[in-house]
Design goal:
Helices cover 63% and strands 2% of the residues. The protein is mostly helical. A two-stranded antiparallel ribbon has the order 1-2. α1 packs across α2.
Length: 171
């Protein structure tokens, strides 16, 4: 456990991409997300993505609102966003087979060793939310074919919003 923290008490991010996403988040908070990223593809750098990655935008927003230390915010995002998979599986399972099916689906999904590994504290990367977003896409697509007009409209809207978030999330 002591290797999980720097000497000053900040958590160590255990994914290489995490430090790039965190740097972009800091730059967004400071208003410096522009131009060329000089720390990539040395010596000239690479142009930054025109739209900052959603993970960095989300992190920057939480830092602004909470005033939390960037490393702590980044370390907590994966388990929090990862827990959305359980919600998505519960909703999908409930729609397909009832309340018990939803609970079992959420339980099995939350206990998947691969998923637990990819959404653990400090693994700051986009992997934590991808399974949940995919299951939400399936859930909303099924909603478009069943139920009342309002339910189908909610399904289409949810599908399109989730698809846009997924496209932005998985840069």
């Amino acid at each position: 456990p002591e290797r999980a923290f720097l000497p000053d008490g900040r958590p160590v991010l255990i994914d290489f991409d995490g430090y790039r996403y965190l740097r972009y988040a800091r730059e967004l908070v400071e208003g410096k997300y522009i131009g060329v990223d000089r720390l990539r593809a040395a010596p000239g750098g690479l142009p930054r993505p025109h739209q900052a990655p959603l993970l960095s935008v989300l992190t920057a927003g939480i830092i602004r609102v909470s005033g939390g230390a960037p490393e702590w915010v980044a370390a907590w995002i994966p388990p929090i966003l990862g827990s959305l998979l359980a919600l998505a599986l519960f909703l999908l399972g409930r729609q397909l087979g009832g309340y018990r099916t939803g609970l079992l689906a959420a339980l099995f999904g939350a206990c998947s060793p691969f998923f637990v590994f990819r959404s653990q504290f400090g693994r700051y990367d986009t992997d934590c939310a991808i399974p949940g977003l995919i299951v939400f896409l399936v859930f909303f697509s099924l909603r478009t074919f069943t139920g009342s007009f309002r339910s189908r409209l909610l399904g289409v809207t949810g599908f399109l919003v989730t698809l846009l978030l997924f496209a932005w999330w998985w840069d």
